[in-house]
Design a protein that fits this description.
disordered C terminus, about 290 residues, 3 domains, alpha/beta, 8-stranded mixed sheet
């Protein structure tokens, strides 16, 4: 397997570095900038290549450009002989359908995406990361996936947007929640550094609990305790983030219902507190 990458950003560099560590032959990188191609090639002990060279020398090609460039890259690729080549893009949201007329070119095309947030170009510790793969004839690349020690699941084309939304919730929006927490602590008089120092152990302990106990058994706080007076105080003191608190609170309430540790009366009372503003608005429209 001779592997080439089109795109030398965080994902392309990191995944190429990972595959090199797994014993694969990386033939090279093509990127819009010479500097990026040389960096990635040096990292993977491969070569910076022009577009045509990379297509010719690679039988496994990974497109690791931003999503809005993938179709343009494919439209450029179809001018070359793609017979018997395996071609992947690594977008979370887009499916393999973007490779129009792939079969007519004699190629096999897939989307392969890691559930991972790449902080830099050398984030190659991917052994525990779960990947999604989507496309026709998955069995044709199973040997590669197993040899690369990739933990994966197969998904349908139509589920890619929902899948990617899941990734956004547990990655991007975790950062957004940390920002909300920091903003509230700043209002309490903490400075940015101390607020970050306060938030991190709390978030880390929540993730550790999920790892050890699973999601449902890791929920703590006033909702799982049925502490309605605390929930009311929160709602009364959150003018800016009340709606976010409400929506997430309703999700937490789903967990409580699944666990069955509160009475139906207590659950209904919490629900009414969380939806108090919505109920008032509905009444005003009658």
């Amino acid at each position: 397997m001779n592997i080439g990458f089109i795109g030398a950003g965080k994902v392309g560099c990191s995944f190429g570095h990972y595959l090199k560590q797994q014993g694969f032959s990386i033939v090279g990188y093509h990127s819009r900038t010479r500097e990026s191609s040389f960096y990635a090639a040096n990292l993977t002990r491969s070569s910076p290549l022009n577009f045509g060279e990379l297509i010719k020398k690679s039988n496994y090609i990974f497109i690791t450009t931003p999503d809005d460039q993938i179709e343009d890259v494919w439209n450029k690729m179809v001018d070359f002989d793609l017979s018997n080549k395996k071609i992947f893009h690594m977008s979370g949201c887009l499916s393999s359908a973007i490779f129009t007329n792939c079969k007519d070119k004699g190629a096999l095309c897939y989307s392969l995406h890691p559930l991972f947030s790449f902080a830099g170009k050398e984030s190659s510790d991917l052994e525990k990361v779960v990947f999604s793969i989507e496309g026709d004839n998955i069995e044709k690349v199973e040997e590669f996936l197993h040899k690369a020690n990739i933990k994966y699941f197969v998904m349908n084309k139509e589920d890619k947007p929902l899948y990617h939304a899941s990734a956004v919730f547990v990655s991007n929006y975790v950062v957004a929640l940390a920002k909300i927490g920091q903003n509230l602590l700043l209002q309490c008089g903490l400075d940015k550094d101390l607020s970050t120092d306060g938030i991190l152990p709390l978030m880390e302990s929540a993730l550790s609990n999920i790892s050890q106990k699973g999601i449902n058994d890791s929920l703590t706080g006033p909702i799982v305790r049925g502490d309605t007076s605390t929930i009311k105080l929160h709602m009364e003191n959150l003018p800016k983030y009340k709606e976010v608190y409400e929506k997430l609170g309703l999700v937490a309430l789903e967990i409580v219902e699944e666990k069955g540790n509160l009475s139906n009366e207590n659950i209904e009372e919490i629900y009414k507190i969380l939806r108090s503003d919505s109920n008032e608005e509905d009444c005003g429209n009658i």
